[in-house]
Amino acid sequence: MPEPSHRGAPVDAPGISSRPEIDAPAGGAREMLELTQLADREVEELQALHTLDPDQVPADAVKKRLGPLFWFAAGWFLLIVVLALAAPLMERAGFLPDPTKAVKCANPPCSKLGILKQGYLLGTDNLSRDIFSRIVWGARVSLLVGFSSIFFGLVLGGAIGVIAGFFKGKLETVLMALTDMFLAFPAILLALAIITFASTSNPGEEPRLSRQVAVILALTIVSVPPIARLVRASTLVFAQREFVLAARTLGASNLRIMVKEIVPNVLPPIFAFGIIGVAIAITAEGALAFLGLSLQPPNPTWGGMINDGQKFYLDAPHMVLVPCAVLFLTVLSLNLAGDRLREYFDIKESVL
Amino acid sequence: MSRKVIGGPTGTGRDPNAKLLRVVDIKTHFRTEKGTVRAVDGVSFTLDRGRTLGVVGESGSGKTILSRSIMGLLPKRNVVRQGHVYYEGTDIIGLPDEEMRHVWGSEMAMVFQDPMTSLNPVKKIGKQITESLFLHLHMDKQDAHDTALALLSSVGIPEPEQRLNEYPHQLSGGMRQRVVIAIALACGPKLLFADEPTTALDVTVQAQILNLLQQLQRERHMAMILVTHDLGVVAGRTDEIAVMYAGKVVEHAPTPVLFSNMKMPYTEALLSSIPKLDYPSHTRLEVIPGRPPDLINPPRGCRFAPRCKYAQERCLNEEPPLIAAETPGHMFRCWFPVGSPEGEEALSRNLAAGASASGVPVTDVPMPASLAGRS
Ligand SMILES: Nc1ncnc2c1ncn2[C@@H]1O[C@H](COP(=O)(O)OP(=O)(O)O)[C@@H](O)[C@H]1O
Ligand code: SF4
Ligand SMILES: [Mg+2]
After folding, report:
1. Which of A327, B99, B254, B263 has its CA 20 to 30 A from that of B345?
2. A241 contacts in B (CB within 8 Å)?
3. Nearest-CA distance A332 → chain B (Å)
């Protein structure tokens, strides 16, 4: 499926060019729409995967080139990961100012905006906070949310999918009906509901969950149905292959067959899909942050930075451009890498 | 070896003096939307330790379902199964999978038709062999490794040490089938099913694989059920042959008897569809006019009547029972057997009329002229 990698369309601060002052609800609505479309496209994608040649098998011995674009994407992504991991170290070493506090500058007031002012790499925002530092710390949030929600989604959705596809019958009907029910909700509404439920509390009480955990939970739940459907489709294909029957004739139990025969076959293509899933989750976290539903200010998140920046886009365009570009490149690189990996794993039976 | 007693709480355990396998009137019917498919419709036979049985019949005659019924590998839903399968004296039909698991692999094993699909493409050969060694024989890593090496050598795979770390796609079709055989034999089963083990292979390696199976079967004194659509495959390699047609055994005889004194027009037709007996050929058996019958509504009388050159009125109305021929161990289902006065008369009557009672055109009969000259 040679399809351009546009799933993770950048969150380019909707409305910013047409209206300098956008009200949150309108912006939120557009975000929701975009996310819903995103989810829909993802479902289409899944349905396409559904009908993929069942005999595709990953074979690590067959060398296929991944191409320079893949390595470029992987390079960018690696850079982001390294920066995110090294953030505390860099802060201790004095390279990275506190992202929540105004930087001291030689020339107060520090609210003057502009790229490379005051010697900081990407300038400061309206509150004189170092943008580079905020990007790096925001990357931690994006990556943590993106990877953990997809990881839990893969574990949960994978288990549901394998069980449904392997046992079929009533169990499959029930599991898939539940999954379809979740799919029927617009993903963003579901996420909103989960976050609102998880993070509200009675007056004077702690919220049920921290914002971070609530966002991860929401995105996990949202990612489970498509993953379950995909894994189930893949399992259906492999469960009827003769090597499963062969394993049974050798005395393997159902659990053993699922874990040792089916999962190793289902995993590689799902792994590639999961990378694209991370891109989507990062985009979704950005959107939630933009709506003020992710980590609360002054903690930096990319979506939050875009939201802050859009109010100043005339005076300080870098405030919105920098996080947009970083989000865009990160999501794009994940999409590219995921697409290439999927093609890479898409090795036909003929090579066997 | 797994020495678990099968039969569970109600079972009586196995009797090593009993026949290895005694199949009594098993029936396997599938309930489908169109009706009940009588895939296996009353098959009985016995098999002693170390003996080989060939099951022959056209595609769709129920050979695969028969072997899966015996092994208890049928789908759970919409299947009606009847009869008894005595393995070492214990009826194993309908045992839950949990109990059959002690039988599968360590007592009975199966070699499948296509090694392309019966090996897991993403697992190394070594792992695929050793898994059942861990499971049934509780070997440690080193023992399992050594056993896997020995198994690969015994099935004639060169450089076995290296092969252990390779994936199935790195081997040729013939080598893959050798691996499948090694896996099936890993835990020393007493009964091996080989379901069309060479049909998916190159003609050049078919004989090698069949010879290997025969050699291993003898060395290990293992019973084997060799399923094929090709009489040529079983000709020199089995002790007995059961010919299946539309879910029933229509002729069963010791191999030499079947070839020298066949009674069934169907067996005769199968034989004449093989160009030579000297080497295994995989000519599809569609040379017999017409198609195998509908298993949902089989013909009322003899199931072969619509295609039989010998067919008379009686064949259309009365189903022939399985009767014993003069040679011990030889049984068949036919009113007008080949070579008998009744059969000769029926054939000449049809020849004179130009058609059988069911309307099959009968002209000059291409009889397998002299069987002695062929084999
Ligand atoms: N699950 C099933 N449901 C319905 N019919 C089946 C099923 N499995 C096999 N059959 C039918 O049973 C018959 C015998 O099949 P099989 O044993 O595979 O034949 P063979 O191995 O001799 O070619 C065929 O007509 C097939 O269509
Ligand atoms: S002669 Fe009659 S009974 Fe015998 S095989 Fe032909 S049709 Fe069946
Ligand atoms: Mg078959």
Report:
1. B254
2. 117
3. 30
Q: Which residue of A has its CA nearest to B118?
A: A243
Mutate to test the pocket of ligand 2, among B244, B266, B308 (most ligand atoms within 8 A of CB): B308
pLDDT(B41) > 50: yes
Judgement on whether residues A60 and A197 belong to the same structural domain of the protein: no
- For B271-321, how does the pLDDT look when each residue is reduced to its tens digit (9 = 90+)? 887 655 444 555 444 467 788 888 999 888 999 999 999 999 999 999 999
Pair (A130, A239) in one structural domain = yes
Are A30 and A141 members of one domain?
A: no
Range of the domain at A59: 1-64
pLDDT tens digit string along B315-356? 999 999 999 999 999 999 999 999 999 999 999 999 988 888
Share of chain A above pLDDT 90, in %: 24
Residues with CB under 6 A from ligand 2: B 264-266, 302, 304-305, 308, 310-311, 315, 320, 334-336
> Nearest CA to B56 among B240, B304, B308, B183?
B240
The residue from A31, A64, A97 where one domain ends is A64
B178 CA to middle of ligand 3, Å?
20
For residue B363, the model assigns a pLDDT of 74
Task: Supply angle C-alpha A38, A40, A43, rounded to 5.
Answer: 115
Report residue B361: phi and psi, to 5°. Answer: -65, 130
pLDDT band (50, 70, 90) for residue A181: confident
All CATH 3.40.50.300 domain ranges of chain B, comma separated, are: 21-238
Q: Does B96 touch chain A (CB under 8 A)?
A: no
Same domain, A45 and A127: no
Q: Which of B77, B105, B119 sits opposite A249 (nearest CB)?
A: B105
Residue B370 confidence class, pLDDT cut points 50, 70, 90: very low
Residue B277 CB burial class (10 angstroms; 0-12, 13-18, ≥19): middle
Peptide bond into B197 cis (omega under 30): no
**A119 and A88: one domain?**
yes
CB contact under 8 A, B135 and A59: no
Provide the number of structural domains found in chain A: 2
Q: Are residues A95 and A193 in the same domain?
A: yes
Which band of pLDDT confidence, cut at 50, 70 and 90, is reported for residue A252?
A: very high
A38-76: pLDDT as tens digits:
445 544 554 554 444 434 434 443 445 677 888 888 999
Tell me: do A206 and A251 sit in the same domain.
yes
A112, A335, A339, B192, B210 from A35: Cα distances, Å: 35, 16, 20, 57, 60
pTM: 0.79
Cα separations (Å) of B360 from B263, B289, B311, B352, B363? 20, 8, 9, 13, 10
Give the type of residue at A287. Answer: A
* Confidence at residue B13, expressed as pLDDT on a 0 to 100 scale: 61
Q: No. of H helices and E strands in chain A?
A: 11, 0
The reply to whether residue B73 touches residue A245, judged by beta carbons under 8 angstroms, is yes
In CATH, B21-238 is 3.40.50.300: yes
Domain finish residue from A33, A64, A95: A64
ipTM of the complex: 0.83
Q: pLDDT tens digits for A17-43?
A: 333 333 333 333 444 444 445 445 544
- Residue B301 CA to ligand 1 center (angstroms) comes to 22
CATH of the domain at A301: 1.10.3720.10
- Return the pLDDT at A17: 37
> For the sheet containing B21-32, what is the strand order?
B35-47, B21-32, B79-87, B90-91
Q: Are residues A5 and A107 in the same domain?
A: no
